[in-house]
Amino acid sequence: MDVREKIALLPHSPGVYRYYNADGEVIYVGKAKDLHKRVAQYFVPPERLNTKTRILVSKIADVQYSVVDTEADALLLENNLIKQYKPKYNILLKDSKTYPWICVTAEPYPRIFLTRRIEKNGSRYFGPYSTVMHARYLLEFFEASYPLRSCRHKIDSDTIMRGKIRPCLDFHIGRCKGCCVGKVSVEEYNGWIEEIVTFLKGGAGAIVKEYEGKMQEAAAALDFETAQVYKDKIDALRKHYARSIITAAKDNDADVFSLVFDGPEAFGNFLRLRGGAIVQSLNLGFKMNIEEDQDAVLSEFIAEIESKFGELSRDIIVPFLPDVQLPGARYTVPVKGDKLSLLELSAKNAREYHFNTLRQREHTDPDEYRRSVLEELRKALGMNELPVWSASTTPTSRGPTLWQAA
Questions:
Q1: What is the mean pLDDT of each run of 10 residues along the chain (406 residues)?
Q2: CB 284 within 8 A of CB 95
Q3: Which end of the chain is more exposed for a tag (fewer CB within 10 A), N or C?
Q4: Do you find a cis peptide bond into 128, omega within 30 degrees of 0?
Q5: Residue 288 · residue 264 · CB < 8 Å
């Protein structure tokens, strides 16, 4: 049975289709709310297809499909299959660098530190963060607010009882309470750790409210020293919280997506807002190997983030609606207010990522950089072909130069 005969038998159901070449390799994975209609759109007279799609179709030797219940299921399955097969003509995730994470170790007295490696040893990881600077600022805040250990010793009840470890300088200057010599209990120490974990999850507002209650209780009991301790903690949290907050002190949860398109590439930024504060920011780059609609690229971006970091917030802020919307989520394209400010901040990060990528490419891949500059010029001038460089004087002259169509 040839490909066109198979297409005639495809169901009118949501699903995911896979195109194979003559060597049996998956070259494209796609999603559809109607498999029959979507796949049939590829097999039309060639002049109705753009150049890249025409090349893809010329290499299709077989088609397979999987039926699912909803469009959202199709989107998530497509995302998984793209990662599994890495098809040549699908959107490629270009971003391959490792991002910094904050690790909370699984020990009786946990350590907190910055890492770029995730190990399956029971430790908890928070992030990733787009910049090391943001993660380090958080660690400095924790170090200033909690007397945690910075050493790498293995500390347990046996170690403490036998006196195997001598207190370090941090203990003597008050930065650490001395868990290595039993000066602080496991319960008290882990209470600090759980506060930090709550903070990393975006729960700074809840911690402030808890401290306010304890401060008032201490003041009512005339324990003004303890009340002052909680007041200092509240002030420190609010100071940090004010630097992170975006939405006028509202305890909002939201996920924000923005995209900048540049020819066959897209540059995206994702912001995660929890309790009114940004707790995560991530940039990702995409390359389209065939022409893709912008709303489809946005869907892929959202699916990629959910697959990396788990379930998204109910509120998702976007510059335009994706072609597939996840169930239970409320998509907003804001036109004013705090949500628009968040979207503009995300878009600013995406544009900065785009600019920095081009700057880096100027040094590492000058030919590609020149091509992208010419493409921008072509669009700005409304030209059908890429312009080419033509000098009206010798290369060593400082006389005038001009651009002309190829």
A1: 84 94 94 93 88 90 92 90 90 70 91 88 81 77 85 86 84 86 90 86 73 89 88 74 46 88 91 77 87 92 86 93 91 90 90 86 74 71 68 46 44
A2: yes
A3: N
A4: yes
A5: yes
Q: Collapse the DSSP code of 263 into the 3-class scheme (helix H, G, I; strand E, B; otherwise coil) and give the result.
A: coil
**Side chain identity, residue 349:** N
**What tokens appear for 5 in the block?**
């005969």
The model's pTM: 0.63
The residue with tokens 């009118």 is 12
Encode 205-233: b = buried (16+ Cβ within 10 Å), e = exposed: bebbebbeebbeebeeeeeeeebeebbeb
Which segments of 61-214 are extended strands (E)?
62-67, 92-93, 101-104, 112-115, 124-126
CA 141 to mean position of chain CA atoms: 23
d(CA 63, CA 382): 38
Please state whether beta strands 277-287 and 92-93 pair in parallel, antiparallel, or not at all (unpaired).
antiparallel
Secondary structure class of 400 (helix, strand, coil): coil
